Amino acid sequence: MLSRALRHVVLLSLAAVVLFPFVWMVLTSLKPPEEIFVDHIRWLPDRLYWVENYTRAFTKAPLAQYLLNGVIVALAIFFLQVLVNLPAAYALSKLRWKGREFVFGLVLACLLIPPHAVAIPVFLLLYQLGLLNSYASLILPWTISVFGIFLMRQFFMTVPDDLVDAARMDGISEFGIVWRVMLPVAYPALTAFGIFSLVAHWNDYFWPLIAINEQALFTPPLGVVHFRNDDAGTDFGALMAAATVVITPLLVAFVFLQRRFVQGITMTGMK
Amino acid sequence: MKTKQLVAKKIRLGAVANWAPLYLLAPALILLAMFLLGPLLAVLGLSFTDYQLGSKSLNWIGIENFIELYHDKNFWRSLRNTALYSGAVVPVSVLLGLGVALLIEAQKSFKDFYRTIFFLPVMATLIAMAISWQFILHPSFGFLNLLLKEFGLSGHNWLRTESLALWVLAAIGIWNQFGFNMVLFLAGLVSIPRHLYDAAAMDGASSPFERFRLVTWPLLGPVTLFVVVITAIRSFQVFDTVAILTKGGPSKSTEVLLYTMYAEGFEFFKSGYASAVTIVFLVIVLALTLIKTRYLEKKVHYA
User: Fold this and answer.
1) Are A206 and B239 in contact (CB under 8 A)?
2) Where are the domains of chain B?
3) Which residues fall within 8 angstroms of residue B150, CB to CB, at 6 or more apart?
4) Is A257 helix (H, G, I), strand (E, B) or coil?
5) Which chain B residue lies closest to A13 (C-alpha atoms)?
6) b/e sequence B166-199, b meaning 16+ C-beta within 10 Å
7) Cβ-contact B279, B273 below 8 angstroms
8) Do A165 and B11 touch (CB under 8 A)?
9) Could you read off the pLDDT of B5-47 as tens digits, one per residue?
């Protein structure tokens, strides 16, 4: 009994510390300035000021535009990743051909390259192509995901060959098999990879910071930092409101899809 | 009849003599060459040149960039800071992840509840959360200093004090990462067969500590190594918090490897020099990744 209580005491105190930055951010976003700039701790707002704070977050900076950019970029990346990676994974798992092992070895070797390491040449390439400061510069470099190919290939290896053979007997082309046979069975692996990909690119700061300097193309992380530097300055209420808005979409999705999230994000461990 | 059988056999083997593998793989291979392998070779090549972003010419200068690095105090400072940061984040976030996983698994109640909470910082946008941390650490209106005041202690300007800033960033890093480690440990704990605990109990291992020493720890060993290496790789890539909270300051005390690379390459436009920094970063991360891959292969073979 005692040890049971002790477990909860320890875990709850740690949980309080872990949650604190979230709680304080939201509480601050509800307070008027005179309750933010204080010389002692005030937990709850005396006067609710959230309408003003959230309105300023959306009007002093194009926050809605940032969110839209984030959605466009993350979804486009995932869509193109599926388009590129699924056929590749299929060719590396269900087709027998000379050189397959070599190409798969290449994919495995590329898994070792940290994305930061190629930032400078990729930046120069996009500069040469005149693509910097465009959605393309945010999306294109991520359309190839060797991790995605690897993951889907491993999954396809577990799909029975009979399924593919039957489709061939029916006269479906190899390209057709990828989309009509493999895609539907790949759903669980694809969901996990999708969550991993969407979370990674919604949250990414390093690459957008390099590729974009036009405000209209800012993703949410770039936008919220810009808001802090230029528009909000010491307007902590509005700044915390903006930060709250940026983390909310993922947080809500997380609450509904917890297990898939944990599964999807910890897959990076295999990377 | 015979040809039909042959065709069937061919189909069964997937040995369809056509261009299918080529056209299915072509987009992936082209993009791979454009955005991974090509750039990897390019960064290696650039590290031997004096290329500056926007300049028209580029000269092969051999290992001069690396010699300059060797004599660059700032670079050593950056490497040292990255090592110190990782030296703090790795052990603490691994032990915290393990401890929390053990506590969560110890009993049945509220498992999902705790797991969800400790996982939140892993997936929440770090940039947004760093801004929240910055406000908490604000010298005059920040919660931390106000809390210290309640206890009669004096506060600090946490992110602007040379002796503190790196450790504050490490604390944020630990907050951000240990939930990830917790999940890996939870998966490891679940895979330990229950009957081993029963066997240990029969052998007289009655206290939880004995059970941990005899069963949990030895069986969790490989997972622990794996978690340590992953955490090391992740903490070596620290960038976001540095870029928006300290910009490497005060007086270079939080300058870390990726931030040095970013500043040299994209603020001072010294692409060649920044490429040399990248090579150092790459070598360290590759070495760590190879350790992890070797472990993964072992796990595949002996599982």
Assistant:
1) yes
2) 2-46, 64-302
3) A40, A41
4) coil
5) B114
6) bbbbbbbbbbbbbbbbbbbbbebbeebeeeeeee
7) no
8) yes
9) 555 555 555 555 578 888 899 999 999 999 999 999 999 999 9
State yes or no: pLDDT of B302 exceeds 60: no
> What does R_g of chain B's alpha carbons equal in angstroms?
26
Judge: B125–A250 Cβ closer than 8 Å, yes or no.
Answer: yes
AA identity, residue B157: N
Q: Which residues of B touch A114 (CB under 8 A)?
A: 233, 237, 281-282, 285, 289
pTM for this predicted structure: 0.90
| B237-256: average pLDDT | 94
Cross-chain residue pair A116–B42, CB shorter than 8 Å: no
Closest partner residue to A96 (CB to CB) among B14, B117, B286 is B14
The pLDDT score that the predictor gives to residue B300 is: 42
Cis upstream peptide for B250 (omega within 30°): yes
- Asked if A175 contacts B97 with a C-beta cutoff of 8 angstroms, the reply is no
B285, A117: Cβ pair inside 8 Å?
yes
Task: Decide which of B215 and A239 is more confident.
Answer: A239
Closest CA to A198 of A75, A53, A111: A75
User: What would the two tokens of residue A45 be?
Assistant: 């707002």
Average pLDDT over residues A226-235: 82
Neighbouring residues of A19: CB distance < 8 A, sequence distance ≥ 6: B117, B120
Query: Which residues in chain B are closer than 8 Å to A3, comparing Cβ atoms?
Result: 106
Most B-contacting residue of A20, A77, A120, A245 (CB-CB within 10 A), to test interface? A120
Out of 1.10.3720.10, 3.40.50.720, 3.30.300.180, 3.20.20.370, the CATH code matching B64-302 is 1.10.3720.10
Nearest Cβ partner for A84 among B27, B126, B129: B27
- Indicate if the pLDDT at residue B96 is higher than 90: yes
Paired tokens of B210: 């004995």
Token code pair at residue B187? 């998966």
Q: Does the beta-carbon distance from B135 to A240 stay under 8 Å?
A: yes
The string of pLDDT tens digits covering residues A129-150 is 999 999 999 999 999 999 999 9
The nearest alpha carbon in chain B to A99 belongs to: B21
What chain A holds in terms of domains, given with CATH numbers, is 2-48 (no CATH), 62-270 (1.10.3720.10)
Closest CA–CA distance from residue A66 to any residue of chain B (Å): 13
| Residue of B110, B131, B133 lying closest to A228 (CB–CB) | B131
A103 interaction partners in chain B (CB closer than 8 Å): 25, 29
Show Cβ contacts of residue A216 under 8 Å, excluding neighbours closer than 6 positions: A62, A65
How close does chain B come to A77, measured CA to CA in Å?
Answer: 13
A75-102: pLDDT as tens digits: 999 999 999 999 999 999 988 888 899 9
